[in-house]
Amino acid sequence: MSDTSDLASLFGPSSSTSSSSPPTPPSPQLSRTPDIDSIRQLAKKSFWEIEYELNTFAKTQGYTYLLKGNDILAGRSRTFRLVCSRHIFVPDCQEDTKESKCNYVLDFRYEKERDTHDPLSGPFVLVMDGGLLDHNHAPIEAFLNWPVFTIEEKKTMYRQISHQNNTRATRAGSHIQLHTQFSPSISTDNSEKSSISLPEKDKDNRNGDQDEQSEKQDGSIEEAREKEDVPWKLNFDPLNHHIQRLKMKLRDSEDEIVKEEGDEYRRKYEELKAITREQQGLMEDDRKKRKVYEESQVDSAEKKRKLDERWLALMED
After folding, report:
1. Cα–Cα distance for residue pair 18/6, rounded to 1 Å
2. What is the C-alpha to C-alpha distance for residues 101 and 84, in angstroms, rounded to an integer?
3. Domain enclosing residue 31, as ranges
4. Domain count of the chain?
5. What is the per-residue pLDDT across 111-135, written as a single tens digit (0 to 9) for each?
6. Where is the composition biased (Basic and acidic residues) (predicted)?
7. Which strands form 65-68's sheet, in the order they lie side by side?
8. Is residue 242 in some structural domain?
9. Residue 236 falls within a domain, yes or no?
């Protein structure tokens, strides 16, 4: 993990503020984005380093990056997308409309297409099919105070969410019941052949009867096999149905992860907003007390001046 100096050299002077430094006051300008060459250099690192360093930079610009879906964490994909926090929810807005959302996104793809190695370790390449959009909002004061989670904290967070989803999937899979049905076995044993020799004519008749019986027997066997195959096909339908439902639940869990993470961010944002209001209230109280103190000092000085004038007047008399 690179330190603050490494991040400053990567994203320029504007990103030199670390996560523990005091917040930068909001600027009327739009939030800045890292330059493309810097992102391409950063893409050569692991998923965790990319997310951490981008969020460290985003903190100085009053926003944060959110992971869209968890396919790469679950090993189901070699690509991932980071979206602006204003794409998930819009702070300080009464309505959450498409026009007010920020559509700035970053797409990364694992560089080694056929490599079986863990894709989270990188390297990645920046995907720019339609170019990169700019932010449509100014820096948000709450995100200037936003905590930048370390790599270990992020791993722990994703492990907990993954464990919750696996537990739900296990409970759903425990209700699957597989019923199999077997048809009675069909005996194909031939009857005992007689050791008595027959005349040629009788032998021909006997052989013809045997061939006819054999054909009938083969036909009945084939028919029985076809009937036997039907229950197998029908009995696997409930299993396939449950498997499809399980796959759908796993896909739905991706949106749930984003929602849970968004809820966590919303909660922290509300806490920070409450703290900010409290600090503003304290500052206002201090300002009022200072004003009263200054007015009292002026009154005291005026009273002292008048008292000195009266004293001098008495001394002259």
Report:
1. 11
2. 9
3. 4-148
4. 1
5. 876 666 778 888 898 987 656 778 8
6. 199-229
7. 65-68, 79-84, 105-110, 124-127
8. no
9. no
